[in-house]
Amino acid sequence: MKKNGESKGNLRSAQKIFRVMKILCFFMLAWLIQVKAETYAQSQLVTLNLKNCNVEEFLQEVKNQTGIHFMYRSEFVKSMPRFNLEVEQKRLDEVLKQVFEGQGIRCRFEDEVVILVEEQQEAEKRVIKGTVRDAQGNGLPGVTVMLKNTTIGTATNIDGQYTLTLPAGDYTLLFSMVGMKDREEWIGDRSEIDVVLQVAVAEMDEVVVTGIFKKAKESYTGAVSTVTKEDLQIYRGQNLLQTLKNIDASINLAVDNANGSNPNNLPQINIRGNSSLPMSVQEYNEGVRNDVNAPLIIMDGFEISLERLMDYNDEEIEAINILKDAAATAIYGSRGSNGVIVVITKQPEPGKLRVNAEIGADIEAPDLSSYDLLNAVEKLTLENSLGLYHSGIPSTDLEYQAIYNKRLRSVLSGQSTDWLHKPVHVGVGSHYNLRMEGGRDEFRWSTTLNYKNVEGAMKNSGRNTFNGSITLMYSKKNLIFRNYTSYGVTRAKESNYGNFSDYVAQQPYNSPYDENGDITRYFENFYGTGRGYGEFNPLYDASLKSFDKNGYEEITNNFSVEWNILDGLTFRGQLGISSMNDHSDTFLSPKSSYFTVDIDTAPEYSTDDGFLRRGSYTYGTGETLNYSGNTTLSYSKVFKERHQLYVGLDYSIQETKQNFYIFQIEGFTNENMSSIGNARQYAKNAIPSSSTSHMRRLGFTGNVNYIYNGRYYLDLSYRIDGSSTFGADKKYAPFWSSGIGWNIHNENFLTGNSVLNVLRLKASYGQTGSQQGSGSGATTLYKYQTDNKYMNWTGTVLQEWGNPRLTWQTTNEFNIGTEFGLWNSRIRGEFNFYAKKTSNLLSSMNIPLAMGFPSYIANIGKVKNRGWEASFSAYIIRDHEKDFNWMVSGQLVYNKNWISKLSEAIKKQNEAMLQNDNYDVANLFYEGRPQNSIYAVRSLGIDPSTGNEIFLDKDGNETDVWKAGDKVYLGSSDPLYRGNFSTMLMWKGFTLNLSFGYYWGGKMYNETLKNRVEVTLGDLTVSNVDRRVYTDRWTKPGDVTFFKKIDNNPTRATSRFVMDNDVLELQSVSLQYKWDNSWIQKYNVQSITFGLNMSDLFHWSTVKMERGINYPYARNIQGSIKFVF
Amino acid sequence: MRRKIYILFCVALVLNLYACSDWLDVRPETEQKDKDLFSTYDGFCDALTGCYMSLASQDIYGERLTMTHIESLANLWYMTSVQTETNRQADWLLKHHEYTSIYAEDAIEVMYAKLFNVVAQANMIIKNVNENGEQVILDPDIRAVIQGEAYAIRAYCQLDILRLFGQVPQGIQKVELPYSEVTSIDDILTYYDFDAYVEKLTYDLEMAESLLKDKDPIFEYTFDELNSGAFAGISEFLLYRQSRLNYWAVKALEARMYLYVGNRTKAYEAAMEVINAELNGQAVMTMSGVEDFTVGYKLCPSECLFYLSKYNVMTYSQSFLIGGNTNVAYDVRSHLVLSSDMFDELYEGQNINSHNRYWNVWNRQVEYGGQTYVATTKYYWNEGNADAPMLHYQIIPMLRMSEVYLIALESTNSLEEANRLFQTYMRAHAVSNMPDFSSLDDVQSFVIGEYRREFVAEGQMFYTYKRTNTREMLWCDEPVEEQDYILPLPRTEYNPN
Does any CB of chain B come closer than 8 Å to the CB of residue A851? Predict the structure, then answer.
């Protein structure tokens, strides 16, 4: 009998897999599922072509083909209607399933015999019973016992006993009761299951995973916010980082107006403000990435890169914890001060095979609403009215007029090119997900596959990611082994259309095509072709075979073993290895304007030798190898019922080696032959370049947590970090934090209070560090001068004096916060105030030049951040009966940042920049001012009599001369307030969520006004302009305008263009419907979820400016269907 | 239970073995820590080569201290009398000895910084030879040569610091200057008054000399022999002695230093030692004449006791020196040339009929606005038919036999000897029939003018004016005050004492 049961199970699971396959086949990649060894009979192949046959005829035919006998009761087979059947070389079990599906008949394979049985008849054989008790051994009445993911269930009787009849299948029991922790039991072969339910001390089971330790939320003093997998679904944006920003306002993605919605752009993010300074003002202004403030990202205990997180498959994620303050991040020591993002992946769930499959479409629709350009008629009229087609020299005047008339003719005949839409399209991409899991309690497995293809709004730009992973878990007695292997591939492609700004600038009266419809290479110069090449046609370059792409493959293996040595004492060991290969390929076609038209470069490539050098290829290749390991020992124990103690110790090591090489080659005769091997030679005067880094660190962490009676608690952390990036005298540094808290809701006077369920106060103070941006500086270094030579030798040159005392940047942070929950958490809120001081900032320290170098890297400078974060959520409607919920939530974050101390070297750089009239510096650093500030010369506006701008100099005197030295501080470019609010409606299977983001209190320098409105005459001859040039500029004495007259003087940094930047955007809208009724379950589909996510839909701002300079912004729309089998 | 804890302890212990500081001691491969570099013989060689490469930087001898700024200080280049927006700002200001404007300050700062940067690199070599040279550089001769050259490099740079920023040797005003021996940020920079500074210089030169004496391969082989990569007799690193501060270059440097500080006797002795030096009965080095100019070597490679190797000198110098380009119009914004009047004045009183410098190092075809200008072609060559460019063209002369002869001429007490040296000197210039000097004063005035002619774009004239504390510079409209000879230290500098 037992044997029968097993083969039955096999049949069922096999059947089910095939049904799943049928549904998946039409959209999934070929995916082989290996099923356990099958019996001979069911895998036999049959070919049938039966018309209007009955069951018996059918079975006879099968028997003839296969020799298999059937056993059945003829009365119920006879009641089946006649049917047609046409199959070719199909497996027998599939054929049988097809015939008997929905007829209440099941097939059981017994060696060479197939038995047909009635479905109900068989199900009655499975009855499960047992007793549910509490920890004291008393039977618990009224416990809900459900088959997980079904509506079948029962409740325990007065003695805690239950009996449940099981339908066919493989199930997990779910025991739940108010006040008790839920418990799941996989049934397997058992017929009797007794369980003990533990008392759920208010939220006691809520755990904060910090990446090193697991801590009870009830006694955690750190500031942390948790993002659940459901949140990830509902707030979904273009990529995971966007999604996180949509959920938690304390994650700040810097607005990157240049790169817009480029799917390949890695955003700059920070948590709770900037706390590091760049090394030099110059670098900062030249837009060197401000990576120094990026948070640390930990996945299942191992560090990963920001780019990897961006490309991560969000279906693999169970939750994300964002650790914000020192009490939370001190356990990461020298890496913790920018905050930590902890990603927790899903664990395989035991039970029968579960399949999650998702298919979706991703749409990127360009949003060009911020552009307001002139059309051809307007542009030509403007040019003419400004006298651009007139000259004092009569012969030239005639020439100009001829050009004007030619253009006028063409414009009047209808020529006007909409350049803006040339390089963009509605990008339609797709994504696919497949997750399968199963196994028993001892051995569980899960596997995921994910493919995502984002087609960017610029034509031919896109990002493809593929992720696959396998997780295996094995538990034996008190040991749990887990192994996670993942493989990720990313392919990024930049648009061959180049920069969007090139199209914005095109003259609307130029046509990209000639009279034959062929693409033109370049346009005539503003004053005619007689004066050399004009602007080249960007569409011509786009039609070539140039490309710019990059990608990486990463393989990761994380292994962990957990050993419950004694009750409460746990040891965990982890080892992670990851290896990444990245590569970049940039090919410039030999026909590119760069070689043929561009005034700066074309002459070099037009000589006899230069001709052969046309076409270039830049190839980069690199690899990163990272391994890390840690061991953790934790002990938790309750003494005398009221003293709860947790002690954790962790020891970790990590080594990272990275290198990247770049080679340039040139001389491609045919653009179709872009393989590196077709190059003529290595690029002239170019040398291979490389960047390498090698880093090791180790750390020892300790944590003690004590709770008295669930009410008062104390949390202490300590870490010693060692790193190879720091000075010889300072290889190790300590970090620590301490925190206290009070669970007021556990006080006697509040227990049982029906209104106030949660009220908690906590305060913490600690010190963390930041290693980033500190690759060198500790040691005296030499560098080989491979691009130079001396006779036949190459030498090595002293690079900098090392500072053996160099140490970590340290951040001291104070946090005080409160959490509350009212009416059974119907209303919840949290408030945190923080003050953060980063000292020992790495910065250049000036020394006399006679020391051989102007400066060395030292720990000087301080930055302070102060602010608060408030979040609030409430169920306005929570109706279980009608299954209708309406929830609103919001967040408001305030942050003020200022520099409290600066090095003399940086101060001197500021002065030097102010001295240099030609350098229109955007930012300067001053003590007492925010790190991201705007400096410009104060303006009194435009003089109505002359059309010139009037300035105030440094001392407040009126002047009409602009001088860099007169720049003053005009405000911070970081908003003071940021936040979001959202409203979510849930009714039956429907969920509708609208999420808005907003920020205000910052300033912005409106570049559009400078680049597109207050242009010079010279600009007009080479570029299209904003409509406001036509309407809003000073033209004659007496005009009171915001914009000055049109002349050849470019506008320098002026306070006129510094504007309040207050923004409200509809950052995401999502609509989901979950379909899980019995109708679809009949087809063995447990649920189907339809989802529609739209992000970046609308953007309202007080600043009217062009958004997305090099790459336009796009509205992102994703539709998906998700199946659970 | 006990066993479990024991196992656990062992695991922890094994992991802890990693926890030593050495494990944290790693670096990427493109960079090298000083202590790693100086743990190999090759490291010492490469660091020394690095010093020479830095010397050849355009910030100092690659350009500013040979071709542009230093010659502007001596008023050698033609410039418009009024400062305009477009001319070479730093050069214009330096020509007018206005040192307080930002462009002049920046230019001075760059030169000062780079000189001390080279000194710091030399200091590192000196220090490391002392500390672990014996273990790493096994051959004591090579060890001595490496350290000797490092001392000489330091002396070369520090002498020019003195010549640029120091007091006028015959003047009244006193200036203290740093003499750098720093090898880390913890070392203290010491300032010295003139006499003490000269003492430091003398010490370094004597150290260099004593280390190189007899160890330098130049005591065994000729410069020519060593100028071949195929020469198998000695270690490759000891080849090409002209490109390095060899023993005789140090001697010449000593002569230059003594003459500058006013010690004529010692200057004479050192100069004569170089002139009279012999190897196997042949003079170690003679002046360039036919053998260089007939084949088109304009930088007198065969008389260089020390030159810097600079493979791309023509490429970059053309943009401001024009060189031999004949179809380039003079452009006030970038070019440094002589006006044709200046050129005539330069050779006034000279017998130019066969003067090989006069005929070979100038381009007289630069024109603009109907005027003719003269550009130097010293750093220009015809790539088509250049023989061994590395040895003959891609160089920047630092110490030449011509200078040694001029030092001897100027410092000898004997009119007779002066005339003898003078005849040899002129013969090398292919000039005959020059009348003898009638007094030592005549010698002096010839020498001053000859420095101007001989070392155009090699950066020696300013120092000649300075050591003679002359009030009148040729082509300078206003009198030159003592103050004008003393470049101000950059604003970053302070005397910590």
Answer: yes
Question: Is residue B329 in a domain?
Answer: no
Q: Which domain holds residue B158?
A: 32-215+471-497
Give the residue from chain B lying closest to A857, CA to CA: B185
Q: Does B56 touch chain A (CB under 8 A)?
A: yes
Does A782 sit within 8 Å of B26, measured CB to CB? no
d(CA B435, CA B361): 25
Quick check: helix, strand or coil at residue B351? coil
Residues 811-850 in A contacting B (C-alpha not used; CB under 8 Å): 846-850
Q: Do A784 and B119 touch (CB under 8 A)?
A: no
Rounded Cα distance between A364 and A369, Å, is 15
A782, A785, A845, A859, best to mutate vs chain B, most B CBs in 10 Å: A782
Number of domains in chain B: 1
Q: What is the mean pLDDT of residues B285-291?
A: 89
Residue B266: name the closest of B416, B407, B104, B441 by CA: B407
Secondary structure class of A980 (helix, strand, coil): strand
Alpha-carbon Rg for chain A, nearest whole angstrom, is 35
pLDDT in tens, A341-357: 999 888 888 878 888 89
N-term to C-term CA, chain B: 68
**Distance in angstroms (rounded) separating the CA atoms of residues B40 and A870:** 61
Residues 6+ apart with CB under 8 A from B496: B188, B189
With a CB-CB cutoff of 8 Å, which residues 455-474 of chain A face chain B? none
Residue found by looking up tokens 């697991």 in the block:
A214
Flag whether B448 is in a domain: no
Give rounded-to-5 percent helix, strand, coil for chain B: 50, 10, 40
A851 Cα to chain B: minimum distance (Å): 7
Domains of chain A: 2-122 (3.55.50.30), 127-196 (2.60.40.1120)
Tens digits of residue pLDDT in B398-454? 999 999 999 999 999 999 999 999 999 999 999 987 889 999 999 999 999 999 999
Shortest CA distance to A244 belongs to which of A355, A173, A327, A320?
A320
pLDDT tens figures, A199-228: 654 443 467 788 788 877 777 888 888 888
| Assigned token pair, A914 | 């102010």
Find tokens 């015959």 and name the residue.
B170
Query: What CATH number does residue B46 fall under?
Result: 1.25.40.390
The Cα A712–Cα B8 span in angstroms is 33
| B199 in any annotated domain | yes
Cβ within 8 Å, pair B185-A801: yes
- Of A1025, A1022, A1018, A1101, residue with least CA distance to A1066: A1101
Conformational region of residue B349, where left means phi above 0, alpha means psi within -120 to 50, and beta covers everything else? left
The tens digit of pLDDT for each residue in B308-352 reads 999 999 989 998 999 888 888 888 888 999 999 999 999 988 888
Beta bridge partners of residue A554, listed in sequence order = A488, A580
CB A1013 within 8 A of CB A1025: yes
Cα(B240)–Cα(B145) distance, rounded to whole angstroms? 13
- Residue A790 to residue B56, Cβ atoms within 8 A: yes
Q: Is residue B197 part of a domain?
A: yes
Q: Check CB contact under 8 Å for A793 and B113.
A: no
The residue length of chain B stands at 497
The 10s digit of each residue's pLDDT in A576-585 is: 999 999 999 9
* Window 584-623 of A, Cβ < 8 Å to B: none
Return the bridge partners of A53, or none: A83
A793 contacts B29? CB cut-off 8 A? no
Interface size between A and B, measured as CB pairs under 8 A: 179
Is the CA virtual torsion A101, A102, A103, A104 positive or negative?
positive
Residue A1077 neighbours by CB distance under 10 Å: 11
